[in-house]
Amino acid sequence: MHWLERLQHETRARSRPPVNRLAPESCVAKFDPARFAGAGERCQHGGVAADGAGGVVVVPAQSGRAVLARRGDLVAVADVQGGQVGDLWAIDDADPGRWLSAGHTRDRCERLFPAVGEDFRDQHGDPILRLTADTSPGVHDMLFPACDPPMYAARGLPGHPNCRDNFLAAAASAGLSLPVVPDPVNLFQNSAPQADGRLVIDAAVSRPGDALSFLALRDVVIIVTSCAVDYPPLNDGRCTPLRIQITPATMG
Q: Mind listing the pLDDT tens digit for each residue in 87-111?
């Protein structure tokens, strides 16, 4: 990196507000999906929260949150009540011009979604996250963009909460301003391609407490939104919270 670019990058980094970082003492060493089952009603409309039984970040219904994961940390995203889609992004903390690319991940994996043990890639094809566990039925998507204001306006719902705006708000809370909104990893979204090429969205088949775990392969800002679509079939016509838990590498 040229010295001037390095100076500009360091200046931007110093000016960014700190991203929510769960303190190691507030995390549990092992992720237990059962802890999330049945806990959603009390946190649907809350903000970032720390569960006394173990540090977690609540992603309220139709909202988004950003957290920082260090290299080697384990990031788990859980569906609290079941049937809720979550949009996930990972942005390089040292170089925010690099982020998880759904297209490059499909290309390198030659799959619609990575299998457990495979890596998600950035726009340069370099690994950024590794899928280490999936307790759900394994139905997810990397073909659809985040829902956005024009999509809802076309359905007669102007001003509806949406994942695009929630991503931008969460990114801004972490001091990030990206030139585009990357396509997300749509956790628990049931929209597999059909034999005739159509993409049919059906209700998510995730159960209460189902979760995916990711290994951070570099320092990343993780952004998760609880999908805002509140009409069937997506999210079964209702929106509920998600939860993020980070297990620090030193506690693995």
A: 999 999 999 999 999 999 999 999 9
**Structure tokens belonging to residue 204:** 């998510």
What is d(CA 166, CA 181) in angstroms, rounded to the nearest whole number? Answer: 11
CA distance 171 to 89: 10
List the domain boundaries for the chain.
Answer: 3-251
The DSSP line for 97-130 is T-BB-HHHHHHHHTSSSPPTT-EEEBTTS-EEEE
Q: What is the pLDDT of residues 2-39, one digit of tens each?
A: 444 443 444 454 456 555 554 333 322 233 434 333 33
Residue given tokens 């960014």 in the structure block: 16
Could you say which DSSP state residue 193 is in? Answer: B
Give me the count of residues in the chain: 252
Burial of 108-137, coded b for 16+ CB within 10 Å and e otherwise, reads: bbeeebbeeebbbbbeeeebbbbbbbbbbe
Across the chain, the runs of DSSP E, i.e. the strands, are: 57-59, 64-69, 74-79, 86-92, 119-121, 127-134, 185-187, 211-216, 220-226, 242-247
> What single-letter amino acid sits at 5?
E
Separation of alpha carbons 252 and 146, rounded Å: 32
Q: What are phi and psi of 2, to 5 degrees?
A: -60, 150
Contact assessment for residue 109 and residue 234, using Cβ atoms and an 8 Å cutoff = no
